[in-house]
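Hi R.,

Here's the chain you asked about this morning:
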Amino acid sequence: MRVVVIGAGIVGLHVAAAAAAGGHEVYVLEREARLGEHTSGRNSGVVHSGIFYAPGSLKERLCIEGNALTWGWLERLGVPHHRCGKLVLPDPGDEAALDALAAKAATLGIPPVSLCDAARLRTLEPHVAGRDGIFVPSTGVLDAATYLEAMRRFCRDAGVELLTRCEALGLDGGHDAAGTLHTTRGPLPFDAAVNCAGLFADRVAALAGLPGFEIRPVRGDYFVLPQTGLVSRPVYHVARPGDAGLGVHLTPTMEGHVLLGPNVVALDAEARTDYRHRSPPDAFAASLHHYLPGADAARLAPAFSGNRPKLVRDGQPAADFVLERRGAWVHALGIESPGLTAAPALARVIVGALLGENAGA
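And the predicted structure, written out as tokens:
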């Protein structure tokens, strides 16, 4: 069977690897010249634990499954990473929410989280201010660019054909059936297709006859503090219901510097690839002082900008991942954070739904 995967972000590459492991002929189409040009390559590089997501949601379940799978993939591929855990600290007045988060985490079947008093916090992160928090051991950080390149090589060695600068333009053969994709690099017949187009998944869904979905992009800017030795693991605050993301947090980079971000900047749909970093440093400096009161905020420098493909379905925000099976197609929509962590678990579900197989790649 010929399987076409549209989008060569981390989810698309894992889908391709899983389909190839089943003995299928696999093509991956990527509209950009580079892999992970959008969501997969522009993020904090955090391997999430699953504690922040709605109970019973795909985000929660696939993040937890994907966490264990991701650590295995990183070892297998030789991708730099740190299984360092993370700290979650309450903002003033959020102490009850911290206790509730710890209680929820205890029900998820993940490695046990632990409550921390001020002394334990100082032991874990001597420079971080806080009186209490929780330590989440299954979280860590990875080098996203190296991960994408390693997955590209893995797919290539598995016989996957990766076509860059290849955008899907049209479709022959029926919206729910096998047919021929017309692309900027010519026609491509297929038996099954997977829409992993990320920021452009709504356009591919419409092309394939699946209406009602819209991506409303949200840019997130990052700053970096080029000092080492200040934090050794991600530091988050307790997420509040209705927040567009997990808020500005601290993440140690592979070089040991401190990455701050992302913030939330809503974009027009036509500006979804606007990565111009325009955020002033003031709010980031305030977050830095909140977590690291001894740090020198004057050294903050713009790092990069990312983008979250926020999904709207029939005019209403969709808070969860959406996986839609339509005949020969599976559409993966709204795959924002924790998509980097959930990618191998998403691939298992997608390939299993499309091909009726247990994708164990």
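The mean pLDDT is 94.

Let me know if you need anything else.
M.
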